[in-house]
Amino acid sequence: MSRPDGFDAVVVGSGPNGLVAAVRLAEAGRRTLLVEAADTIGGGLHTLDLTLPGFRHDLCSTVLPLTLASPAFRALHVEDDGVEFVHPPVAAAHPLDGADAVLVHRDLERTAAGLGRDGGRWKATVGATARAGDPLVDSLLAPLGWPKAPFSLARYGALGILPATAVGRAAFRTPAGRAVFGGMSAHSILDLHSPVTAGYGLLIAALVHHVGWPVVRGGSQQLADALVARLRRSGGEVATGTRVRRLSDLPPAETVLLNVNPAQFVEMAGDRLPKGYRRRLQRFRHGPGVFKLDYALDGPVPWRDPAVGGAGTVHLGGTLEVIAAGERQVAHGEHPDRPFVLLVQACVADPSRAPAGKHTLWAYCHVPNGSTVDMTAAIEGQIERFAPGFRDRVLARRVTPPAALQEINPNLAGGDICGGAADLRQFVARPVLSFRPWRTPLPGVFLCSASTPPGGGVHGMGGWEAAELALRTVRPAPAPATRSE
Known about the structure:
Layout: E1 7-12, H1 16-27, E2 32-35, E3 47-48, E4 57-58, H2 65-69, H3 71-76, E5 85-86, E6 90-96, E7 99-104, H4 108-114, H5 119-141, H6 150-160, H7 164-171, H8 175-185, H9 197-210, E8 215-216, H10 221-233, E9 237-239, E10 253-258, H11 262-269, H12 275-282, E11 289-297, E12 311-316, H13 320-331, E13 341-344, E14 359-367, H14 376-386, E15 394-400, H15 402-408, H16 424-428, E16 445-447, H17 461-473
Parallel strand pairs: 1-2, 1-10, 2-9, 6-12, 10-16
Antiparallel strand pairs: 3-4, 5-8, 6-7, 11-14, 11-15, 12-13, 13-14
Helix pairs in contact: 1-10, 1-17, 4-5, 5-6, 5-9, 6-9, 7-8, 7-9, 8-9, 8-13
């Protein structure tokens, strides 16, 4: 596992943040080892035949707008390594009972036209966020400090700090406008009556118009494989099937970056952590989990509104009020009868993921952390609500409850795919309140998971910021001299 002269840096965990950190360190000249407990690299960036042979499913992450928008991935230029981002005909759709679905296109004007009376308001809120572009995204994904776009950030924050329910009712006149904003905001996996949930809705919707909501041709695993290949080209090494239980399990290195959640770090560090810092980590809260279903389908979903068939992502839940009520139930430890369902039709953009004429599909709903309730019927009920006859298209189904997600990836504690609740408190203090929260009290040891800023999503910024901090503060020891013969 180690070279005779050791490593300058060891990165534990090969999810997006760990991969980005390892590549950044290796390309800066640090001798880097990437350690992964699973037998395969990528964490959530993993594609496999979950249901039937020839049906390729992403284990977790599929739609990757933050990857295109992220400063880290913009700097890495992964397209040069063969990663191809492909866009569906429609970025997102929000079906409604007794009305046409709301369609969110990459083109802002086309989206606004479909919203009728709310078109101008969509442009004034979501559109203004999209027009702020990379400087605003960079400010939102950056550590605490003076932002790159202070005026754009202030305009965004004036609405973004508010609950999604309040902004939805105040900013939009029609049930359709309010509903689609509610679906976007529900990506926060928070009670939509809570502060900052409007900010999530504004940003995730704005990314449609800024960079799109693409998938990777061939599956998200292609992105992980490209980063691993790049790491190896820079002299980095990879060790899979190697679970790190204690920091002492690692080979000697001046720098250690940990793509783990706070509870895992406390266990790995043992009594080496100062008591005050350990207590702060132990107060870190995980958010709701997800209950996920993957499907192999005999054909496309029979949507009541055929336009939904062109959407890569579909939000199922109906009105803002119904979505907000369901998300509030989840936040209070309950299971809604009609949950908000996030559904992805990857084959709409990438037909290679299934045999000719067939389709893959995944859908999940939010559930209380660690839930053991089977939500299959509730999810399928929501799909059938807007696509009668859906069950007749199902060839095979794979059920992944929160416990199974955690078993696959221990970072996903209780099925929490965001690395911790992303409410206002933990948006600022993640995992602790600090201008440099990636740094730990242990010399040379840094955290780089989604439990650090800027939180969940395939943006790699936790890994990028931790690696940048390590490069500035830890100087590698000189290589041992080679004795000449």
